[in-house]
Design brief:
Strand content: 25-35%
CATH topology: Rossmann fold
Shape: globular
Number of strands: 11
Mean pLDDT: 96
Structural class: alpha/beta
Low-confidence stretches: none
Strand order of the largest sheet: 2-1-3-4-11-10-9-6-7
CATH superfamily: Class I glutamine amidotransferase (GATase) domain
Number of helices: 5
Helix content: 10-25%
Order of helices and strands: EHEEHEHEEEEHEEEH
Length: 225
């Protein structure tokens, strides 16, 4: 598979993603945000970090970058896209995903390991996981509080567009396991066509047995399935 990782000023997880992709023998390209053309890509990743220092609003400036015009076109044409953390914020700011990511409910930056439960594996991103499987992943964000209107929330739930929700170690989805106040404990969403994924947890940080249990690795393997 051919992949492209978009790099913005302030990206700090782009190399982590590249290491995972190259480990799995993706033919990967690092694409600077000022570029106006994309290499031919089966997968595009908008990595985590703090693009433009999160000034104005997280992801708002990055969403106006030259390369985003091509990313939007690719997404609308069915290309697989993942936005992780700041990448999720950028996907919302550029209109590829609906909703908003607000300040964490505690109004503090949160950086820690959390648990999420796989709600549905009927998509190209989570098909290597079992429904109900509990994953230990890492989060590091200040604006991860997902919010949307009631109509969209119902659509997300009914059409299986919420692949993961925050839970406790046993898989129970309770308010105490919600690290940022997201509606319905939502940790990630898909677009209607299920080719675009936005998620706050970092799977690339849990993809090497040296420093984790590799619970993030099956997400990337799913894309190769």
């Amino acid at each position: 598979m051919r992949s492209s990782v978009i790099v913005f000023p302030g990206s700090n997880c782009d190399r982590d993603i590249a290491v995972v992709l190259e480990k799995l023998q993706f033919k990967n390209s690092m694409v600077w945000h000022k570029e106006t053309t994309l290499p031919k890509s089966d997968l595009i990743i908008l990595p985590g970090g703090f693009s433009y220092g999160d000034y104005l609003r997280s992801g708002a400036i990055a969403a106006k970058s030259n390369i985003l015009n091509e990313v939007i076109k690719a997404g609308k044409n069915g290309c697989l896209i993942i936005g992780i953390c700041n990448g999720f914020q950028i996907l919302i700011e550029c209109g590829l995903l609906q909703g908003a990511l607000l300040r964490n409910s505690g109004l503090k930056f949160v950086s820690k390991d959390i648990f999420v439960r796989v709600q549905t594996n009927k998509n190209k991103f989570f098909n290597k996981y079992k429904n109900g499987e509990v994953l230990k992943l890492n989060i590091a964000h200040n604006e991860g509080n997902f919010f949307t209107n009631q109509k969209h929330l119902i659509e997300l739930e009914e059409k299986e567009l919420i692949p993961i929700k925050y839970c406790n170690e046993k898989g129970s989805i309770i308010s105490e396991s919600n690290p940022n106040g997201s509606l319905n404990n939502i940790a990630g969403i898909l677009n209607k066509n299920k080719n675009i994924l936005g998620m706050m947890p970092h799977p690339e940080r849990m993809a090497d047995k040296i420093n984790s249990d590799q619970k993030g690795l099956p997400l990337f393997l799913s894309l190769m399935n």
